Amino acid sequence: MDDHLLRVRSIRAGYGDLTAIDDVSMAVGEREIVGVIGPNGAGKSTLLRAITGVVPLTAGSVTWCGEPIDRLPTDARARRGIAMVQEGRRLFASLSVRDNLVLGAYHADRATRQAAEDDVLELFPALRDIRGRTAGVLSGGEQQMVAIGRALMSRPRCLLIDEPSLGLAPFIVDEIYRTLPTLVELGVAVVVVEQEVGRVLKVVDRVMVLHEGRSVYEGSGERFRTDPDALASVYLGHELADQGGAA
Amino acid sequence: MNTLLNVLLSSVLLAGVYFILSLGLNIILGVLDIVNFAHGALIILGAYSTYVLHTHLSLDPFLAVLADMVVVGVIGAVVYLGYLRFTVNSPLVRMFALIGFSSVVSALLLMAFGSDYRTIPVDLGTWYLGSIPVRVSQVVAFVFAAALGGATMLVLYRTTLGKAVRAVTDDRTSVQLVGINDRRLSLLAFTVGAGLAGAAGGIIATYVTFASDSGLAFAIIAFAIVIIGGLGDIWGGAIASFLVALLLTAVTVYLSSALVNTALFLLVLMVLLLRPRGVLNRGRV
């Protein structure tokens, strides 16, 4: 019996003839924060897109609570409890902030939807005053809060966040990273893809390093926190001798 | 002066019908990213359905329009489920499939009804606004079209389902990622779009004569409105409906009906050059 929430086994995925990730495996447990780091073009975003089914697999498998889900369409995976915040936020730009949140809980009844919206507004009080505004005209930070809030509206068990710091002011990124441990307290596992390594290492339980589409390290984030040279080494594609903690 | 007022009034009444003519096309374009080359066929199917329901079953023409909307909507659903959904990644195949569907519809209608032009005569009398005569049937057609358009807009802008449909226009992947079955929304959009095209055909059949090959002429007007209003912009489409109705009516009255299509193409060309995202500058490029 697999006691992990999400497990990815030796997956390969890409775009047309281009393979973006190959033979990548990872596991995410309940209430865990996993960071996925690596240089540009390492395949970090593709990994998240393959987990959610936005990009099809050409090899390997994805299981959710022990059940294979790689044949399910994206929306069915989301209904099982996997939510994702895409790079660039990708809000419904012509709809209001409130409508964006409401659609995040599309299948919920009115009372559940309202409760979820209250929780999101508690997490991001700044959204309270801009609920009526059109999402497309918000600042980057506001959009990121809406994007995370929309993903949380369905009360997912696992939240995948792609590059939350991209294009945002540092104080907003700090605020967003401060919410991640709160999400874990609420019972949500988080997988965060990030290029700002220093920031992500502060909050993660485990970390995976991708290089040119392959996993070169998976284990405790502690190692990189204490040994910056080790991080530089894996960033250059060198596998570490002891892949401690690999799932 | 009376002629000018008459032109304006006729344009307003015609704009309501034109709006319905383009609404279905706009919804399908927005949600499915499909340029529906079968739009004219669906319009003419609506015209003949209303004609049959009225002349053979003695149904009131406007009740017949409601029934024909369902009939053409179901045909749209069958077309979508039958092959459109399999052509998501093949725009060229999809285009030829829709053109093929139009040819089949046109041929079947020709075989069933011959080449004679037909109309649905609706005589509800004439009102006078001062000295300007207004056909009551045209007022009823306008009210009917406005109600249909208003109801569609109400669903699109006030219900969660409608907002989900609009969200697909913004970002289909994000819709999938929040757990909404976008394939069902696509089916719904094509069914409703087809139904609206059918309704437009039924209403317009009370205005003008039509034959099995008339669909293209109506489709050209619908395409022009969608381009002028901005691709996928429904409010822009409403304004464009009035502009096109005004242009076509004015050209017919002041110049010649032979110049109607020329004027329409010039207007489309002008909008594409000066305001490619439509009158409200909100459409897709």
Descriptive tags:
heterodimer, A: 247 residues, alpha/beta, Rossmann fold, 10 strands, 26% strand, B: 285 residues, 11 helices, 73% helix
Please describe what this structure looks like:
Chain B: Its main location: membrane. Chain B: This is Branched-chain amino acid ABC transporter permease. Chain B: It is a multi-pass membrane protein. Chain B: It is found in: Cell membrane. The complex is a heterodimer of chains A (247) and B (285). With 247 residues, chain A is α/β, with parallel strands linked by helices. Chain A has 9 helices and 10 strands. Chain A has a 6-stranded mixed beta sheet, with helices on both faces. In chain A, strands 2-1-4-5 form a 4-stranded antiparallel beta sheet, covered by helices on one side. By secondary structure, chain B is mostly helical. Chain B has a domain at 20-215. Helix content of chain B is 73%, strand content 3%. Chain B has 11 helices and 2 strands, in the order H-H-H-H-E-E-H-H-H-H-H-H-H. Chain B has helices at residues 2-32, 39-55, 61-82, 91-113, 136-158, 160-170, 172-177, 182-204, 215-229, 234-255, 260-274; strands at 126-129, 132-135. Chain B has a two-stranded antiparallel sheet with strand order 1-2. In chain B, 49% of the residues are buried. Chains A and B meet through helix 2 and helix 3 of A and helix 6 and helix 7 of B.
In short:
Chain A has 247 residues and is an alpha/beta fold. Chain A has helices spanning 44-52, 74-80, 97-104, 110-123, 140-152, 170-185, 197-203, 222-226, 228-235, and strands at residues 6-15, 18-28, 33-37, 57-64, 67-68, 82-85, 158-162, 189-194, 206-211, 214-220. Chain B has 285 residues and is an all-alpha fold.
Per-chain topology:
The complex is a heterodimer of chains A (247) and B (285).
Chain A lengths: L5 E10 L2 E11 L4 E5 L6 H9 L4 E8 L2 E2 L5 H7 L1 E4 L11 H8 L5 H14 L16 H13 L5 E5 L7 H16 L3 E6 L2 H7 L2 E6 L2 E7 L1 H5 L1 H8 L12
Parallel strand pairs in A: 3-8, 3-9, 6-7, 7-8
Antiparallel strand pairs in A: 1-2, 1-4, 4-5, 9-10
Helix pairs in contact in A: 3-5
Chain B lengths: L1 H31 L6 H17 L5 H22 L8 H23 L12 E4 L2 E4 H23 L1 H11 L1 H6 L4 H23 L10 H15 L4 H22 L4 H15 L11
Antiparallel strand pairs in B: 1-2
